[in-house]
Here is the input.
Amino acid sequence: MQKILVIDDDRDMCMLLNRFLTRQQFDVTEMYNGKKALEYLAQQKPDLILCDFRLEDMDGKQVLIRARELYPDVPFIIITGYSDVKLAVEVLKLGAFDYVTKPVFPDEILITIRKALATPPAVHHAASSSRERVVPVAAAGKKPDKEVAEKYIWGNTPEMKNILKQIELVSPTNYSVIIYGESGSGKEAIASKIHEMSKRRDKPFIAIDCGALSKELAGSELFGHEKGSFTGAVNQKTGSLELADGGTVFLDEIANLPYDVQVSLLRVVQERKIRRVGGNKDIELDLRIIVASNEKLWEAARNGKFREDLYHRFNEFSINLPPLRERKEDILRYARHFLAMTSGELGKEISDFSAEVQRVFMHYPWYGNLRELKNVVKRAALLTDGAQVDMQALPFEITFHEKLNYEKPASADVPSYVPAQPDIPAVSTGAPRPVISEQSLKSASIDAEYEMIVKALRQSNFNKTKAAKLLNIDRKTLYNKMKQYQQFNNL
Here is the structure.
């Protein structure tokens, strides 16, 4: 029996994975922090390691490095709730076999595990190297690959056609541009398109996620630093802005940039000069700055979160990208595009979606926009053996929403939800209930918890982040609860 080490500080997640993988004839060991996991690895060699990236005492990268030193032939799979290209590149470069994002779906993770266990160590190392090569070159500070750029299709709605006209107008200029839009709606694709249509197309395009920059290291990432300028600065570092010299830098989620770094950035915008952290000389730059935000920067400036003078410097031109749910005519167009791409990658011949899946896609709100749609289609294509994607291939989130949506109250005025009230009337949803073997205090508690989650989802219009806040839990816990009620109980 093959041994799997599961490392996650979420004990519920460990329990669910243990139960599922044990049913699949694996010998599972659970560890709840990095220190205990490393102590175990010093004594025992598993056949595979499954590790959460964010642990209480350390991150999964540290566990990965140590595990690779001990057992370079043992496949290591990272689980993360932060679907980020930079993170994926980092762990794959360090030798991870693959990574999966939360929410974790049993069938998906089982496929990844079996693939990892069936891959010889030598092939595994080669695969890691090849993954590094297919990372978008824009993220590495090089010219965006033309082939990759052409894989992005544009919608046919009037709103998208108008945005394309705006891109054509602003691209030849040197204007700074603000792109407003929800996460996953395609802001970086628009920034890349502006760069490709500009006179700077042969120079670097560098995309930076400001939300992923820590307050302590944001200045170093953007402006670079000199050797010895702070603890840990053992070498000189060239910042992302300097790497983009002559080209375009795209600052995504600019409102998340620390306030003190905004002051330094203002000088870059005004004078096109930077000074590395710990440096004493100015470096002149020739670059175009495009920024993006999922919140209105003028409101952030009014609330003191964002510098008003910096906002006005950036606001030479702005583009408003509507969310996918407001351009429904494009949903199936994008879905079929992603299906064609994924089918080719998997070597399958999947022609379309079933009529029911198409209807569900058109009614689902797609809070994650194109990014969510692409992930759903990729998963569905992986699970589909026939010529069409059917409902059984859709993830739990989609089907859960669909069942609740049929029972959604007609009135828009939903009463306020107060978790502390013990006498909230039960909501009859018709959605699947947890399997209860006997009437007990525990089963009654589970049933009440289920009703509270349903009510919170309805009140928040099925936005899981808002629902989690209403329930006073984090989004990760909400996902785990939802999966526990249906996904794992049906295995």
About this structure: The first helix runs from residue 11 to 23. The longest strand covers residues 288-293.
